[in-house]
Write a structure and sequence with these properties.
The protein is an all-alpha fold. It has helices at residues 16-30, 39-51, 63-76, 89-102, 110-126, 132-157, 164-168, 179-200, 208-234. It has one domain (13-234). The longest helix is centred in the C-terminal third of the chain and has 27 residues, at 208-234.
């Protein structure tokens, strides 16, 4: 599925993960054989990739600003989900369960984690809920979790993956990578990004496709920031981002 913006393109919550992966496939094509020279370069490239996901001439979409704020949150360690008072507790429990599940990526096989996430997704589809838009965000978070887990697992462990060089620099200390941290950041970025949009723009309650797209932008940039931050911590001998 192509996620370059089109007014006729409809998005469901289950598309969120694939949209996230499509952005990193584009980023991977840029960094297949090299690493970005600086964090600023990476941030700009992430913003450029996300621009293709946005409608033109819509000032409510600010991909480069989103990228900058997400990178800052990662560096400041200030990432969290702030739930509104009316958020359904059953949906919150599903998001919590999703975050707990991805933490098992270091001890379980990838397929086992994906199976558990798929089970959470099916439970959400059948769940009785108070707010459709909150369920949309919850399901989108699980979709991002599944695709993010597959993406970052492959980028670290598959030497043919386009992001492998960027992430590892050819270093074989792959066990040092804490993939769950990146995947959890993706999930939190998506859900918190969506909730923030709902607070600042009440019309988003009636435009779920727009909400998904904006939440995915937060997830993509948070994912990139978390991955680059981890790479610098593990391999201090690699060129530093200034």
């Amino acid at each position: 599925m192509c996620f370059i913006y089109s007014a006729s393109t409809g998005l469901s919550a289950n598309d969120a993960g694939a949209m996230h992966t499509a952005a990193f496939e584009e980023l991977g094509s840029m960094y297949k054989d090299k690493r970005p020279s600086s964090e600023v370069e990476l941030m700009l490239d992430v913003g450029n990739v996300m621009t293709s996901l946005c409608p033109k001439h819509d000032p409510t979409y600010q991909p480069h600003r989103v990228a900058m704020k997400s990178f800052q949150k990662i560096q400041n360690g200030s990432q969290k989900i702030t739930y509104p008072e009316d958020f359904d507790q059953k949906l919150k429990a599903s998001i919590d369960k999703t975050l707990i599940t991805v933490k098992a990526l270091n001890v379980l096989e990838l397929d086992e984690v994906i199976d558990q996430l798929d089970s959470i997704q099916k439970d959400l589809e059948e769940m009785e809920y108070d707010s459709e838009i909150y369920r949309t965000l919850s399901m989108g978070g699980v979709s991002v979790a599944m695709e993010s887990a597959k993406l970052w697992h492959s980028s670290i462990h598959d030497s043919e993956h386009d992001l492998h060089t960027m992430m590892t620099g050819g270093n074989r200390r792959l066990q040092a990578f804490n993939i769950p941290i990146i995947v959890a950041a993706d999930i939190i970025g998506f859900v918190e990004g969506g909730l923030t949009e709902l607070v600042s723009n009440a019309t988003a309650f009636f435009h779920p496709a727009d909400l998904i797209r904006k939440a995915v932008l937060e997830s993509i940039s948070t994912s990139a920031g978390s991955a680059s931050n981890m790479t610098m911590d593990i391999f201090p001998s690699l060129p530093k981002f200034p």
